[in-house]
Amino acid sequence: MFRGSMVAIVTPMRVDGALDFEALAQLVEFHLANGTDGIIAVGTTGESATVDFAEHIRLVQWVVEHVKGRIPVIAGTGANSTSEALHLTQRAMEVGADACLLVTPYYNKPTQEGLYRHYKLIADSVAIPQILYNVPGRTACDLKPETVERLADTPNIIGIKEASTLERIQELVQRCGGRMDVYSGDDGIAAEAILSGAKGVISVTANVAPRLMHELCVAALAGDRAQAEAINERLSGLHQALFLESNPIPVKWAVGQLGLIPPGIRLPLTPLSESFQPMVRAAMQQAGVL
């Protein structure tokens, strides 16, 4: 259903942590002008953990209204409480999101049966396309391929963002590729993942280099390995530098260097350490975006 480079967009904030909707509108136009294929609003990169419910839905609605149907808008609506995730998913549908992205419940460490019931309940309750999101390195929760396969026949579960290993992505493509789409959640392996059958990437790097990430996906989806690998090599430093500190600390600093957003970030996250700033800047220069 969705293809290509989909940006896990950062949430612009002023120095005091207040949401900056003016900067968000500018950011949306930046992505529309640079080929981004879809926007994930208030995902985990968008600091979903530190916005309240009202802010969360207002941000999704703002993005939907400013995109005006030009590309898909996917709302991040995951939570470690099933009732909260259900509420956010319902509200995202009501304000016009095209789909929802639901991260696995973090900290709780549910069983595979608990994960199955969590996702099945939300999918059965809210008639909007839904994408599972597995990122065990951040959540301490791993949605296993056999559980994904159980969910693959649920009509409105249309994909999974897998942010673990290339081997896991390839296994999911083999098991479920005919019934649901698989997306890379790791920019560094996105090219190879797409060449292996994934349909795109939900990207942090696209916040900083949207045109290049779009072109990488176009090449990989067309089976042009040489072109996809050449673009990925140019971006390789950026893929790494954007995780020198916890996401989204480095990427918000980098987008700020492009003059698109103010330097605000909400506690407990803090601005990028000065010692890392030259490394991120060098990676941006290597990619040709600064």
From TrEMBL:
Pyruvate binds at T45, I202. It is an enzyme of class 4 (lyase). The record marks T44, Y107 as: Part of a proton relay during catalysis. The record marks A49, N80, E84, Y106 as: L-lysine inhibitor binding. GO terms for molecular function: 4-hydroxy-tetrahydrodipicolinate synthase activity. It is found in: Cytoplasm. It comes from the Bacteria. The active site is at Y133 (proton donor/acceptor), K161 (schiff-base intermediate with substrate). Keywords: Amino-acid biosynthesis, Cytoplasm, Diaminopimelate biosynthesis, Lyase, Lysine biosynthesis, Schiff base. Its EC number is 4.3.3.7. Catalyzes the condensation of (S)-aspartate-beta-semialdehyde [(S)-ASA] and pyruvate to 4-hydroxy-tetrahydrodipicolinate (HTPA). HAMAP family: DapA. Belongs to the DapA family. Homotetramer; dimer of dimers. This is 4-hydroxy-tetrahydrodipicolinate synthase.
